[in-house]
Design brief:
368 residues, alpha/beta, 15 strands, 5-stranded mixed β-sheet, single chain, Archaeosine Trna-guanine Transglycosylase, Chain: A, domain 4, 8-stranded mixed β-sheet, 2 domains
Length: 368
């Protein structure tokens, strides 16, 4: 039902789906998967594929063990593997007359609003041209400080930026279970999740394969972004042939239902950030004001955490360290340290120049 009602779908493929434990490329699987994509395209669905596998493909070509790679070496291996990966997709997808393109993204491409909007426009233009974008993190240039580190969260941000209705994370597990199914026989698959509470966050299958970097935690992080972006998300087993067709027929997966129907594009982008630059700890009065849709003023700020600039993403938390909101700061962290706890009318005297009165304007903030 959820797939049927979705017009724009992002599908993430894990490395373990493309390369088996014997390091053989799963050509037959990819052939069958391409039939799934063709079927969706025939129904006028817009499809984006987020694929892992560049480093794994590079390791295969060079006969290297991924576990022994250092970061600088892995960047070079990714550069080699990226060509192998795209050649593989092109060879298989062309059989079903599916046109593909390649988009390499870094963390900054989704965190900086101008670049995020550029990416969105690229997706839209590719759809108009009748192409399926295949996205991967740009592992050849990304460092540990500016990396997503996993394609689950990258896929959720791609879904959010592109305005997708649905994200499907294809992995080597059926979904989220009540217990680790590899250890507990009485584990049950959770079919639908409305709210990601502490109980859900504690559940983990620790299913990290030789080629993959993601576990269940990264999928839960991705689900949080989707839930707050109005995008439905599924964790599904992709190991069988025609995995999308199987989801339609058997629905044997975990669906995360969105918390919101929609947010305007600017607020979607704010709430989807995976790397806020700092935090503001506020008092109860400011917390109540935020609940009423008010802007955050200097008077209600108690502590500034981290170093950040104007326009950076920041978290807003209460005295108990519970996140209340997320937004774009109108001041630097140094400026806020000077004006925190003071009335807005005193800001000019404290800083020595005219500025805005709101530290985070209500239009640049999303309450959580």
């Amino acid at each position: 039902m959820y797939l049927k009602n979705s017009k724009k779908i992002v599908i993430k493929i894990g490395s373990s789906l493309l390369i088996d434990k014997s390091k053989n490329i799963r050509i037959k699987w990819l052939n069958e998967f391409s039939k799934d994509i063709k079927e969706l395209l025939n129904k006028n669905k817009k499809i984006i594929i987020v694929s892992s596998g560049a480093i794994a493909m590079g390791c295969k070509k060079l006969k290297l063990n991924k576990k022994n790679l250092k970061l600088d070496k892995s960047q070079a291996v990714a550069s080699i593997g990226q060509i192998e990966l795209m050649n593989l997709f092109n060879k298989v997808f062309s059989k079903n007359k599916i046109n593909i393109s390649q988009i390499l993204l870094t963390l900054d491409d989704t965190e900086q609003r101008r670049r995020a909007l550029n990416a969105k426009r690229t997706f839209e233009n590719l759809f108009e041209l009748g192409f399926v974008p295949i996205v991967n993190e740009n592992d050849s240039t990304a460092t540990s400080e500016i990396k997503y580190g996993d394609n689950d969260r990258l896929a959720s941000r791609v879904a959010q930026i592109s305005g997708a209705d649905c994200l499907i994370l294809l992995s080597d597990v059926d979904g989220l279970y009540t217990k680790n199914p590899k250890l507990k026989k009485n584990a049950k698959l959770i079919k639908e999740i409305n709210n990601i509470d502490k109980k859900i966050e504690k559940i983990s299958t620790n299913g990290v394969s030789e080629h993959g970097t993601g576990g269940m935690k990264t999928k839960i992080d991705a689900a949080k972004i989707c839930q707050l972006s109005g995008c439905i998300m599924a964790i599904a087993n992709g190991l069988m042939e025609r995995p999308i067709n199987q989801i339609n027929k058997k629905n044997n997966c975990t669906w995360f239902l969105p918390k919101v129907s929609k947010l305007d594009a600017r607020k979607k982008w704010i709430i989807g950030s995976v790397s806020p630059k700092g935090e503001l700890i506020i008092d109860d009065g400011a917390k109540n004001a935020l609940k009423k849709g008010k802007s955050l003023l200097a008077a209600g700020i108690k502590i500034v955490v981290g170093k950040f600039n104007k326009g950076d993403h920041i978290k807003i938390v209460d005295r108990n360290n519970k996140e209340c909101a997320r937004g774009l700061s109108s001041f630097t962290s140094d400026e806020i340290n000077k004006i925190k706890g003071h009335h807005s009318s005193n800001i000019h005297d404290l800083l020595g120049y005219i500025t805005k009165s709101e530290v985070v304007h209500k239009d640049d903030m999303v309450e959580i």
